[in-house]
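Here is the promised in-class demo. Please do not try to memorize the tokens; focus on the logic of going from shape to residues.
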């Protein structure tokens, strides 16, 4: 058994020579430490412990019999494990490994097993009749489970450390980036342009002075200091006062500011442009107001129609009984009324045709008027448009009144028809 263990360890030492990962190095280091601890135990202590534990070992192996395993060894081993409250799975999972470590201490004391390091043998081991290979197999299995548990714990610790290191590195990088950005902002310099790079598009307006500048501010300072032209606001105020005085026929106010040539004319031109723009906006506003008025009138007419229709429906509902009593007396006259109603419908159709013809004539007249009025002033055109709008609104009112009368007549006809049908039904019932 010792020879087999030596071969396994020699093979493991060969594989450890070229590790690929840090985790493998750590695992191998742990294994070496464990093996050294086992070898450090003295032979005398192991011999003393073996004497004390011979009885328990003989019970387990069947009282020796020259190292041969007893048939009842499996049952005895199962009783021992059941007394220790251990759950052995086929893969060794779900065991109480802390209790296993205590048991392993006893088994190590029972048998003197040495764990040599890097001890290679040329010849294979021979079968030893004095050793119990079955018990040694379980001992090795339990030791392997303990080592696997330790390995898993070390791996978890390594993962936690790696995560912490990554977080620390991220924080350090973030702090370094903030420090660098703050320093760059502090050390940032203003890039000023050279004289050759500046575009000098602003020229002095005074005669015999052709100096050029790159901005309006520098030009205004030049006018104020060299030519006594004052600030920009002072010049604008003075030009306004001069313009108002000339418009009202008053005297020009006295001033000590040397205005640049052509400054007053530029101000006048700008004021004229503003006046023209305000006139155009006012005209557009007037047109929009007229359109809004027409829309409001249409909406009001619609509301009036709806209110009248509601009133008529209410009147009809209140006066149904009166109509019924009257219709019983006027059964003979119903035919004559139907004829008259048909005539009225024809008249309405004729009226509608006439209105369409009138609209066409009005449209033609409006086109003729527009052609004749192109040469007239804008004020006359606006007045004519307003008149046309008023005329159209009056026509619309007339049309609405006609439509209301038609609705009333149609409702009356419907009520007449209903009463006639009711009377006919009553007569039929009486005859039956």
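The designed amino acids, position by position:
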């Amino acid at each position: 058994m010792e020879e087999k263990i030596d071969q396994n360890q020699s093979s493991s030492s060969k594989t450890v020579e070229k590790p690929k990962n840090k985790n493998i190095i750590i695992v191998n280091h742990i294994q070496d430490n464990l093996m050294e601890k086992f070898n450090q135990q003295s032979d005398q202590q192991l011999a003393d412990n073996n004497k004390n534990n011979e009885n328990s070992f003989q019970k387990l192996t069947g009282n020796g019999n020259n190292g041969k395993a007893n048939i009842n060894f499996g049952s005895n081993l199962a009783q021992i494990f059941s007394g220790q409250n251990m759950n052995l799975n086929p893969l060794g999972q779900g065991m109480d490994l802390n209790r296993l470590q205590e048991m392993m201490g006893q088994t190590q004391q029972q048998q003197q097993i040495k764990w040599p390091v890097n001890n290679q043998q040329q010849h294979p081991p021979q079968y030893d009749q004095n050793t119990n290979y079955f018990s040694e197999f379980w001992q090795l299995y339990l030791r392997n489970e303990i080592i696997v548990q330790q390995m898993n714990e070390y791996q978890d610790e390594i993962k936690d450390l790696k995560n912490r290191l990554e977080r620390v590195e991220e924080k350090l990088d973030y702090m370094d980036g903030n420090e660098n950005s703050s320093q760059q902002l502090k050390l940032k310099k203003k890039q000023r342009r050279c004289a050759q790079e500046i575009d000098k598009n602003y020229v002095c307006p005074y005669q015999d002075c052709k100096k050029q500048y790159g901005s309006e501010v520098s030009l205004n300072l030049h006018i104020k200091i060299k030519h006594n032209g004052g600030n920009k606001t002072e010049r604008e105020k003075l030009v306004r006062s001069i313009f108002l005085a000339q418009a009202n026929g008053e005297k020009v106010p006295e001033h000590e500011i040397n205005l640049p040539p052509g400054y007053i004319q530029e101000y006048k031109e700008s004021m004229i442009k503003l006046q023209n723009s305000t006139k155009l906006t006012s005209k557009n506003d007037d047109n929009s107001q007229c359109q809004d008025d027409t829309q409001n009138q249409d909406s009001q007419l619609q509301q009036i129609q709806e209110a009248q229709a509601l009133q008529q429906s209410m009147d009809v509902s209140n006066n149904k009984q009166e109509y019924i009593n009257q219709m019983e007396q006027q059964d003979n006259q119903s035919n004559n009324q139907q004829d008259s109603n048909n005539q009225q419908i024809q008249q309405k159709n004729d009226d509608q045709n006439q209105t369409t013809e009138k609209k066409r004539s009005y449209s033609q007249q409006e086109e003729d008027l527009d052609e004749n009025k192109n040469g007239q002033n804008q004020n006359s055109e606006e007045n004519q448009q307003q008149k046309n709008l008023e005329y159209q609104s009056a026509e619309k009112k007339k049309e609405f009144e006609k439509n209301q009368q038609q609705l009333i007549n149609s409702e009356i006809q419907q009520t007449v028809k209903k009463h006639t049908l009711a009377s006919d039904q009553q007569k039929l019932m009486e005859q039956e």
